[in-house]
Amino acid sequence: LYINLFIFISFTISSQATAIFIDGFNVDVQDNGSTAITFNNDGTKMFVIGGITKKVLEYTLATGFDVSTAQFVDGFDLSNEDTNNVGLAFNSNGTKMFVMGVNSDAIHQYNLSTGFDVSTASFAQSKDVSNEVTQAKNLKFNSDGSKLFLVEVGPRWNTLPADSRVLEYHL
Fold first, then answer.
1. 3-state secondary structure of 69
2. In whole angstroms, what is the distance from residue 108 CA to residue 145 CA?
3. Hey, which residues does 109 pair with through a beta bridge?
4. Coil, strand or helix: which one is 157?
5. What is d(CA 68, CA 37) in angstroms, rounded to the nearest whole number?
6. pTM for this structure?
């Protein structure tokens, strides 16, 4: 019997850049193939993409950014748009959620009627990035939400098999 365990681990980085293990939280009860993680602004909510369930999993944290205080809340199904999702980001007030779909080569946007509450999410639109991206790995916005950055790995722009790039989009 082989069991995959995925545990999110907290570290503190000192001025000498030495990581010190603090704590961990096991999310494999909900999904044991997690592909992305992000938090709301104050760290009281954690979001994980489940690679097996194809859902964004929402957790509350009693203490901001302290994963040992995490409790599962809900999950939102992403499989209608893509079954292989790797990147996850929210706008600043949590009313828009963005997910990078690998199979669809698209960024999928979901609207949340209540910020950072995936139970209120609904699909809004997709942005095809197949002309620019070979294999996206993650996405991130700048602080004011006017730029989107994608990290990709692939041979499209170079003869090397492991060409990596950061792509910038102005919104």
1. helix
2. 16
3. 98, 125
4. coil
5. 15
6. 0.83
